[in-house]
Structures are given as structure tokens and as C-alpha cells.
Write a structure and sequence with these properties.
Elements lengths: L1 E4 L15 E4 L10 H10 L4 E4 L4 H4 L8 E5 L6 H4 L3 H8 L7 E4 L1
Parallel strand pairs: 1-2, 1-3, 3-4, 4-5
Length: about 110
């Protein structure tokens, strides 16, 4: 799957999302974009999953009809050590997540 990792998450997280084509927002050339524009551009670039910690994304944006799914990680902080316990769940959900679906982990 083609996965976009939000800039609020550490870039090293992508090294733990094995078997997926992961890019960070800066690597995708999308730094500084607001959520609505970011999601639209991510769709245009054919990303299938957007991973973030931004709990507000599902309330601030209309996610229905999106061609990508959103995974919201909930952890004590955005430090890699706090996110790693959720990686296994994240990888499992990536196997069955559907476009437009929002999944909260943690």
C-alpha cells in the first residue's frame, strides 16, 4: 500500500511500517499544507492511507468519498518510543482498511 505519514509524526516511523511504500509529508513535497488540501493532494498522488496523530482531522474534514483511508494514532506523545507499541495494530489494520474509512488506534 502507498502510505503518507503526517508531518506531526517522526519520519523514522516509516521504517517500522514494513511491506508498504511509505513517504512522509515532506518527502511527498506536501509540507505546510492544511489538512483539506493535503488530503486532496494525497489522493491525486495515489496514496491509499494517511497516518496521523491529528484527532481533529475526522471532524474538520469531510472524509466521505475519499479514495484514501485515514489511521489516527493515539499515543502519549509523538515520540517514536510512544508510537512503536501501536505499529503491530497499525500494520494489521492496513491489511483490511477501506477507502474513506477512519480508524483510531491506541
Amino acid at each position: 500500500m502507498k502510505v503518507l505519514i503526517d508531518e506531526c509524526l517522526p519520519r523514522r516511523l516509516k521504517n517500522h511500517l514494513t511491506d508498504h511504500d511509505c513517504r512522509t509529508v515532506p518527502e511527498a513535497g506536501l509540507s505546510g499544507k492544511r489538512n483539506g488540501e493535503l488530503l486532496s493532494l494525497a489522493e491525486q498522488q495515489k496514496y491509499e492511507i494517511f497516518v496521523t496523530m491529528d484527532k481533529g482531522v475526522e471532524y474538520q474534514q469531510n472524509l466521505r468519498g475519499l479514495s484514501l483511508a485515514v489511521i489516527i494514532l493515539r499515543a502519549k506523545s509523538n515520540q517514536l518510543a510512544d508510537l512503536l507499541p501501536h505499529v503491530t495494530d497499525c500494520l494489521e489494520r492496513m491489511k483490511c482498511i477501506k477507502p474513506g474509512e477512519v480508524v483510531r488506534l491506541g
